[in-house]
């Protein structure tokens, strides 16, 4: 085993559990001096001690892995790479900063986000653009909420347990949940539900609730699974509004972001109610994460199943840690949640070699890809377009592709790994976090030069790859 030093992570674990070195040593049946040496990086972590730690504290299998902090490392890289004066800082130095003072690393990332927002605000004012200023001292509300779930690895245990309890206490069952939830709303909460037909070319809101009349209206165009989701969202506000408010109160956000977060938490509850944790996880494991079979079994859409799979990180009952993303034809990412270390840059778009972009060429068909990031980490990706229906032939369509990925270490648990060369690096597709931060200098698909890295311009040579870095050896320029 390669020597692995985990001092900072071990101290973080001990602080989170409120343990002294003596108490931790007693739990692990180790000496206090040994724990002290581990925390000060004087001794490497051994496999037996790693197994003891995982078993005693029910840790995520990647808690002590170096790639667990890949997202934070990527964010730090963006902070420094945009400034030419700091571009010489190496990844090794950033890793050391992140491991030894993670709180400072997070602070730097948050300050950088605020600086970027403030800069955008200043540029808009300087340009004399009309209308309200869109830049803020922080991110946009949707980015705030996205980061909230992202930082929590897309798992909110309070709401997950509450939804599963509500499902069991009311003796709900899989199959016809829209009818069961309609009856529950009427009998327990005096809410009547009606279905509304919209004009063919002017679809209205999916769900409208009138608190005074205790009346909920759903659009007729929704499928049974979509109706169940909307009914469950309304139940979240009616039954666990206090829990949602308590979670929201712990976060520092602008008012608009907090309002959006409440909706996001209600939607999380809804997903957890129509796909109860234990039942769904057990089915996923049994069916080897076959999304289409799970979709049929639980009467929900492809996207709903993929999103729920990205939340299965309950302590003691963890599923495969997935990265979930939804993108449009232009590559704009509208949903991004993760239980993994995978990270895409916030600047410069996503990688054009990523399989999710290929899904639009074969609507309704699942595409797979073994992809390798610049740091050597490999992922199994699957992608497919959504099956969202449209009101009519002349109506504007909503086309999205859904991507679901996991670390290659978990690939054999998925039916989609069948027949793929999981361990052949030569066949893996080299992708990156985004052109502006990607280190692959010889990528023919590069759309932008790497931030903080000067480019080489030679009028006597027409290179095969765009934006050749100036610091690349002459022999490697093509």
CATH class type of the domain at 283-437: Alpha Beta
Question: Which architecture of the domain at 283-437 per CATH?
Answer: 2-Layer Sandwich
> H/E order of the elements?
HHHHHHHHHHEEEHHHHHEEEEEE
Rough outline: globular
Major beta sheet, strand line-up? 5-4-8-7-6-9
Number of strands: 9
The unreliable regions are: 132-138
Compute the separation of the termini in Å. Answer: 38 Å
SS strand fraction: 5-15%
Q: What is the CATH third-level topology name of the domain at 283-437?
A: Beta-Lactamase
**Average pLDDT metric:** 84
Question: What's the total helix number?
Answer: 15
What does this structure look like?
- There is one protein chain.
- This protein has 478 residues and is α+β, with helices and mostly antiparallel strands.
- Among the domains are: 134 residues, Arc Repressor Mutant, subunit A (Orthogonal Bundle); 155 residues, Beta-Lactamase, CATH 3.30.450; 38 residues, no CATH class.
- It contains 15 helices and nine strands.
- The strands form two sheets. The protein has a six-stranded mixed beta sheet with strand order 5-4-8-7-6-9.
- A hairpin with a 5-residue loop joins strand 6 and strand 7.
- Helix 5 crosses helix 7.
- It is globular and about 70 Å long.
- About 1% of the residues have low confidence.
- Belongs to the short-chain fatty acyl-CoA assimilation regulator (ScfR) family.
- Pfam families: HTH_31, Peptidase_M78, ScfRs.
- Keywords: DNA-binding, Transcription, Transcription regulation.
- GO terms for molecular function: DNA binding; DNA-binding transcription factor activity.
- It comes from Nocardia alba.
